[in-house]
Amino acid sequence: MDNLMGNGMDDYAGLKGKVKRYNEILANTKAYRARWKSHLKDLIVSELETMIKVTGLNGKIEFSDKVKHLEYIILSLGSEESGISEIVDERIEKPLIKKNGSLIYQQLFNGKVQVMVSLPFIEGFGEPNPPKVIGIYRPEEVKPPFLIRHMEDFIKEITLWEDFDDDDQVMQKIGFNHQHLPKPDAGDE
């Protein structure tokens, strides 16, 4: 029976280490959630407000705190007529609305912060892309230089969307892929 039970407490070292790590993660989640509430949420909002003011960006900060510990902050660039309209009949045109994009800071279930970019899209003209994840951060990693970098990434992404053309696309060759064929010798030509 002793052979089935193992040789002693050393057999549990791996399991004990995993349980210890699990308990550390649970404690981190509580600490991260407390940090969001105590100052991180206010820091993010304050920095976003400063960036709007300093740059003249036409944005609005929105909140959602309907689910505790799954809150988020959105810097939205709002909506406007896209300049494109559906022709209903010869007298009526229905304008298509463009959502101008947003930068999102969402508190995750484990207290970490996910940063995302929601690209612009035109309603009724295709489907919006899911938000692009910039990164997931522990609250102590979210500092003003990171927030500025997130805003720069956001502005870069929406600018690329607005300025879309084929210059930004990698050209795909049509036909056979010749890169794996041996180069002809000089005498073969």
Describe this structure in words.
The protein contains three helices and eight strands; from the N terminus they run H-H-E-E-E-E-E-E-E-E-H. With 189 residues, the protein is an alpha+beta fold. It has one domain. Helix 2 (13-55) packs across helix 3. The protein is elongated. The termini are far apart.
Short structural summary:
By secondary structure, the chain is an alpha+beta fold.
Low-confidence stretches: 171-181
How can the largest sheet be summarized?
5 strands, antiparallel
Strand order of the largest sheet: 1-2-5-6-8
Helical run tally: 3
Radius of gyration: 26 Å
Shape, per Cα inertia axes = elongated
Provide keyphrases for this structure.
189 residues, alpha+beta, 5-stranded antiparallel β-sheet, 3-stranded antiparallel β-sheet, elongated
Chain-wise SSE layout:
Elements: H1 2-5, H2 13-55, E1 60-64, E2 72-76, E3 79-87, E4 93-99, E5 102-107, E6 113-118, E7 121-122, E8 132-137, H3 144-162
Antiparallel strand pairs: 1-2, 2-5, 3-4, 4-7, 5-6, 6-8
